[in-house]
Amino acid sequence: INFRKKSIPCSSRQEYDAWIRSMYIKDFSKKHHDEISSVFNVICTKNEKIQYSKAEKKIETKIKLKHNEFQIYLPKDTAELRNVGREMNICVGSYGDRAVKKKCTIVVMKVDKVYDVCMELEENRVVQVKKYGNSMVSPDSTEYKVLYSWMEKNHLNAKNCIDFHGPEAEPVVL
């Protein structure tokens, strides 16, 4: 890998992580790590289309409320997952291989065309629900109400999800 004309002596993600850990860089912060990881993911990860069945596609929806439009959808490829991760400052960009191999399903919610929530599903189980920077969806927010209603409608179980619990608010009727 050629990173700004300096060679990084690695050919895989594992070698890259080991190389980063072995280096002593004064004042090397999480921000620096995240920026380098983002560049590495773009350079070293090929874009792959994520295939979805008709049943999986049925969970996609648009919901228009008074002041906001909510779009819940499935990312089309691994490049989009990396973009979601970069925009939301979360690690979902590294889930591409798992999504392509159907080990999980990543679902994104945009509010007024801006990435707002990202979810990891395994079959009908909600594993994670993340907002920007891995923050949680506030139980008294409209996003929470929309997500909770959407999960109920699609028979998704968030019972053991550590960062989303319900019902703590009145769901929105979809």
Strand % is 15-25%
Order of neighbouring strands in the sheet with most strands: 3-4-5-6-7
Major sheet: 5 strands, antiparallel
Helix proportion of residues, in percent? 25-40%
Using the CA coordinates, give the radius of gyration. Answer: 18 Å
Order of helices and strands: EEHHHEEHHEEEH
Summed up, the helix count is 6
| Mean pLDDT over all positions | 84
Q: Distance between the terminal alpha carbons, to the nearest Å?
A: 49 Å
Total beta strand runs: 7
Shape: globular
Which structural class matches the secondary elements?
A: alpha+beta
Low-confidence stretches: 1-6
Which helices and strands, and how do they pair?
Elements (H helix, E strand, L loop, with lengths): L1 E2 L2 E2 L5 H10 L7 H15 L9 H4 L3 E4 L4 E5 L4 H11 L7 H5 L4 E7 L2 E9 L2 E6 L11 H12 L21
Antiparallel strand pairs: 1-2, 3-4, 4-5, 5-6, 6-7
3D structure, described in words:
With 174 residues, the protein is an alpha+beta fold. Helix content is 33%, strand content 20%. The chain contains six helices and seven strands, in the order E-E-H-H-H-E-E-H-H-E-E-E-H. It has helices spanning 13-22, 30-44, 54-57, 78-88, 96-100, 142-153; strands spanning 2-3, 6-7, 61-64, 69-73, 105-111, 114-122, 125-130. A five-stranded antiparallel beta sheet has the order 3-4-5-6-7, covered by helices on one side. A two-stranded antiparallel sheet has the order 1-2. Residues 1-6 have low confidence and may be disordered.
